[in-house]
């Protein structure tokens, strides 16, 4: 029984350490407080929130309500310890963000005709494309909303002249809004942190583009939108 309790306490403390790390080692490192904060940012914690909260109560009973050195008021079942260890393993080795990205990424050069882009939107049913210069410098993210706005502004007598119009013409002056970059080795925790930080700043993040080392001017290996985050929640629930 002592071995089961020890496994539980060691694993619980390791998860507590992960929660501290995920929250930037705050002064208030109460387990439940950290759990509540992490729930708002990370799907793995959301999925296991109720379990971990109950395990925190069990841990308190083990540590603070021990009758004597070798006798506990409450002890965990083996299944509980194994479940806690599975959660800890997920935190130790979170999946890479690239696993949840849309791949391959369709992108265009700055001189691509608008007619070609509109056809790609229709054919592939993708709502946004990264745009690059001929030297692979990232210029911005062209979205279907951006195209609609441009068409609305260019409409004259019920017609729009798209002759000679390229992707660069549609990006506008503020051509790099709400796009961030992440290395291909980045974890799903880092990915979720990007979206959570932008939310806290009241800035809607349209996408996180994944490149080999997070450099914006490398060609994209994957792109993640808020819709793709649904896959993160679904994967964690299935696990």
TrEMBL record:
PROSITE patterns per UniProt: CBS
InterPro entries reported in the protein's UniProt record: CBS_dom, CBS_dom_sf
Gene3D superfamilies referenced in this protein's UniProt entry, alphabetically: CBS-domain
Domain CBS: 101-158
Domain of life of the organism encoding this protein: Bacteria
Pfam families reported for this sequence: CBS
Keywords: CBS domain
Protein name: CBS domain-containing protein
Species of the source: Halobacillus yeomjeoni
